[in-house]
Amino acid sequence: MKTKVMVSAIDQGLLSAFNFGLNLLLIKFWTPAMFGVYSILFTLGFVFISLQNALINTPYSVLIPARKNPDALRRALSQGNLMFLVSLALLCLLLQLLPGFNQSYASPLLITLFFVVRLLREYLRCRWSAELDLMPVMWADMAFVMLFALGGAWLWWQQGWGDFSLNQLLWLLCMSQLLSLCYLLAKEVPLLRPLGWRRLARVYAPVWQQSRWSLVGVTTTEIQNRGYIFVVGLLFGSAMVGFIQAGRVFFGPLNIITSAWTRVAKPTLARLNAEGNQGAFFRLVRQGLLGFTLFNLLFGLTLWLFWPLMDRHLFSHEYHGVGWVTLQWAIVTLLFHLRATSSAAIQAQNRFKPLAKATLWGAAFALTTLAIIGLTHGGEWVVLSVILGEAVAFGYIIKLLQPQPPLPLSPRVTHDP
């Protein structure tokens, strides 16, 4: 377990450094309005990934490790993911044809490709991590970063970062990710052998009984965590979105570290729960909560000590006052890490319905606060709505976190039909 978490942490650390560096470059050379548009697209990608997690990735990471013969479910989820990506591509293209969704920053086809490739990569990373085969994932991520760096260096040599357009950035991200996934895609092909519609529906039907509640949960979580971006964009414009997201630049990559832990911990917790080993189950959860608390406190202290230097050299005059927003994001990040850790335990217990209720309460508080802030025109305070939503959801989940009887999954889910 420790070795696999370390490999996953190294992999996620690489991606964290990449995202951090890219965001700093964009903040340095792009206007807040341009960075705001990119932030909106990046956030939409996270929203789509959350939907994919509910329908495909989370069932894979929880159910596959708990099954003795997972081949049929493995193929069903792989084919289900393909249908999800095709549906998403068609929906994105159709929406961008509507008058209200017209924009001049990037082509509709390229935006759609960006979403599809990003979700394809996320599924493959999740699938291999759930099988606890982490080295191919790390090699693919290293290839992605290297390919992007080479492409970015060539564009910088040709024209400089000041003239780097959103179209060029999306194209470079898409091509780098696709090329880095060649090996994982080749291994995925055997799983796409058709199961037949009836058998596919029969295999996925019991999964849907829980994933539908997971879908409710991620929908409310996205409203709670990212709804502010779209409200701010509508009420205050993309420049304010860029300002708010600039304050998050130090913390966004840290959330990938949470993914490193949950990728390995979730299948491990699912196996411990299925075996009835409640002592080891809750010990692992406590270790995660304590570790993320200490990590956030140490990171926050470091950021506070070096803030005058970073504020002077990293942000232009257009980001004056971003320190207050950064402080709010520090609190959000701590609460998010604690909620994500405890949520992984609830998911491993296959308790998606009560988890969905926790996020419903969090979303309700977040939306209420966001509405008040919107009415008072206090754009720099919108992160407060995320803080309240996270705090309410985390408090509810802690109440849910209690020992469960072993083998909670129904026979229909744990055995192939």
TrEMBL record:
GO cellular component, one term: plasma membrane
Record InterPro entries: Poly_Biosynth_Transport
Protein's cellular compartments: Cell membrane
Coiled coil: none
Keyword Membrane (UniProt): yes
Protein's name according to its UniProt entry: Membrane protein involved in the export of O-antigen and teichoic acid
UniProt superkingdom: Bacteria
Membrane topology of the entry: Multi-pass membrane protein
Record keywords, A-Z: Cell membrane, Membrane, Transmembrane, Transmembrane helix
Keyword Hydrolase part of the UniProt annotation: no
Transmembrane segment boundaries: 12-31, 37-60, 81-99, 105-124, 136-157, 169-186, 288-307, 319-338, 358-375, 381-401
Major site of localization recorded for this protein: membrane
